[in-house]
Amino acid sequence: MNQKEIKKIVSEMTLEEKAGMCSGKDNWHLKSVERLGIPEVMVSDGPHGLRKQEDKTDHLGLNGSKRAVCFPAACASACSFDRGLLQELGEAIGEECQAEDVSIVLGPAVNIKRSPLCGRNFEYFSEDPYLASELAKSYISGVQSKQVGTSIKHFAVNNQEFRRMSCSSELDERALREIYLSAFEAAVKEAKPWTVMCSYNRINGVYASENKKLLSDILRDEWGFDGYVMSDWGAVNDRVEGLKAGLDLEMPGSSGVNDEEIIKAVESGRLDESVLDTAVERILSRIFAYWENKTNTVFPYKEHHELAKRIELESAVLLKNEDQLLPLKEGKKIALIGQFAKEPRYQGGGSSHINPYQVKGAWELLNGVSYAMGYTLDDSAAEELAEEAVALAAKSDAAVIFAGLPDAYESEGYDRRHMRLPEQQNHLIERVSRVQPNLVIVLHNGSPVEMPWEKQAKAILEMYLGGEAVGEAAADLLFGKANPSGKLAETFPLRLEDNPSYLNFPGDGNTVRYQEGIFVGYRYYDSKKMAVRYPFGHGLSYTTFEYSGLKLSSDQIKDTDCLTVTFKVKNTGAAAGKEIVQLYVSDHTGSAVRPEKELRHFAKVALSPGEEKTIKMELTKRAFAWYHPERKDWYAASGEYEILIGSSSREIRLSKTVCMENTSGAVQRIEANTVIGDIVANPQAEKVFSKYMDQLWKAFGKPKSDEMTRQIILSLPLRAVRSFCYLPSEELNILLNALNAAVNETARSGR
């Protein structure tokens, strides 16, 4: 149905019908208008699997849902660094939506992992906005290729569960743009999700649900979003103000309470009816886009279960593998220990909780291995179970302990209090390590954990929350039927206190201050050269890779150019494997305070033993730029940038420098309060100011070799020349004009 036809339908709707169209019928359905042919459609949770409820419905996962395939959660799938794989995942979710008559799937969730404690981190992709956005683009494209919509969420700066419905996230413009909005931006611009879900929280004091800057100025006017904005469930504060700001659909319905507020506002003149009409048009456009492309699809359980396994095989991260203990050898005495070996934890709690098609533990799938429970999730019978496990480990050739976080440790609705595993598990690992040197730890968790036993374990395999096939994937990886190829999408710090948000998370309940600014995750750890347990992008393989031949298309570019980067990767081991190569950019211009390096591209490459491939990556201005609040735009200064190619943020294999020329003019205007040090740092401005600098030295009566006097002069504001050089205000204005002309010339020439 075209826009003209939709406008005609809206023109025939009553005020009551239009107001009603802007809220849900119940938890999961939008309203119909039978007389005008507007059908009822359904939305459903499901970033990593469909959670369709039919009887007792809720939005927190408290009640059951129809059986579906539970794919790996985003904490796991992000570690695949595989755009194509996320596209396949999206296509599968889209097929399932068609099979179950679901028009919109509520996902993907791209909020940044600011702190390891956020209770919902398992649903989010990464601490890095570029990685999160790239994977979100692929997922959205996959789902929507099946004529089913997505609702990218939670827009925006929703990085904790504590008081999430009222707390205000307080942050500066650079952090907002470079970290928290950037994860959404490319996904919205390029993948064009049908809907965006606004978050619960306030942003610098304004609720996201009525934040015009967020929902209209940025989302629609800057990024060109043309779908509709829906609220998170219960996120509406003032329905009329939300509608004015750009919030089209309230979910769930308020049994007509807020619909009546809209009607009153139109009738009183508080709300222009055209604003309501526009919201209804947006909603109807997506309803009919789905309805006119409905297909009779059968839910392909078995095929999607196999896809879930393949995604987990590509996503699991081999953190450590001393003496090549893994893969384990067939015929050896292997002890499997831990409740998760039988009953794996494969998903998180809350609104994304899936009723799975099929779940098996690794122990069920492996022949010839012994088993001991070792611990329970409720901490009962701890000593007896530990003794049994230690005895089994002592008489085995190797012990594999399946450890991790119980469901109650991480869920929607509350945050974690610490990064530790249950003490019973830490105690068990310590005891087993004393009798069995060949110790493997397999982890099931939605976010980083502390590892006091890391030195005692020879191998650590991070499975995250790997979906319903996580046990099958673990069995294949442990015995070498598959080669691990995932890499961490977040940093594992040594301890919670090292995290940059530690002193400001989760705030006082009214506000949470993002004092770390742009220094989130590896941007902080790498800039401080701080020791971490495992760095961003880290992950091992059962083979080895060699990097070589880095070339740049040019060593001199303009900010309007595209830089092509090529290099080679070779499999130098004996097994086929996949390597995730990462490109970081380091700004050496000194134009702003920036992280040591930032991820700007990545690729996953499959290589047979001895095979070598050439990788090509392209970088535009945005890869070099930072957000300049005064310019209200992205800015890449003239100067040198280093291109870094690595296997993680800490393991840089190749590097080259490129010099960029800025073509967009001066970054800022020199004013009376600009300090002299900033002026003389610009070569052209320094020439203009040189005679005044000489006068300042004479005024202070010190030789130019006097360091204290030099620092005092450099810290003076420009207006000080009136006092020390006796410069009239008229001449100061002439000087200001000359300095700004010089700065602009420098920017244009790139000198």
TrEMBL record:
Keywords: Hydrolase. It comes from the Bacteria. InterPro entries: Cellulose_deg_GH3 (IPR050288), Fn3-like (IPR026891), GH (IPR017853), Glyco_hydro_3_C (IPR002772), Glyco_hydro_3_C_sf (IPR036881), Glyco_hydro_3_N (IPR001764), Glyco_hydro_3_N_sf (IPR036962), Ig-like_fold (IPR013783). Residues 579-649 form the Fibronectin type III-like domain. One of its GO terms (biological process) is carbohydrate metabolic process. One of its GO terms (molecular function) is beta-glucosidase activity. SUPFAM superfamilies: (Trans)glycosidases, Beta-D-glucan exohydrolase, C-terminal domain. SMART domains: Fn3_like. Belongs to the glycosyl hydrolase 3 family. PANTHER family: BETA-GLUCOSIDASE (PTHR42715:SF10). This is Glycosyl hydrolase.
